[in-house]
Amino acid sequence: MMIKLQAKDMDFGYNSSKILQNVNFEIAPSKLVTIVGPNGSGKSLPLRGEASSSTGRM
Question: 31-57 pLDDT, tens per residue?
Fold first, then answer.
């Protein structure tokens, strides 16, 4: 069985400020994924681990 990366209903933020809300994604094994957006928009937030997730699961 191949392992995939999946996030479901996650909120991310710093302190009490929510930056991303209701994040859902699934990445299949051996797939290449690109996240596009302006600087500072939170593209890498769910993967870096510097912010806390108050809801959901990964």
Answer: 888 889 999 877 876 666 555 555 666
Q: What is the pTM of this model?
A: 0.55
Report helix, strand and coil shares of the chain as percent, to nearest 5. Answer: 5, 45, 45
Whether residue 23 contacts residue 56, with contact meaning beta carbons closer than 8 Å, is answered with yes
Burial of 56 (0-12, 13-18, 19+ CB in 10 A): middle
7 DSSP assignment: E
Q: Is residue 57 a contact partner of residue 32, using CB atoms and an 8 Å limit?
A: no
Cα distance between residue 16 and residue 51, in whole Å? 11
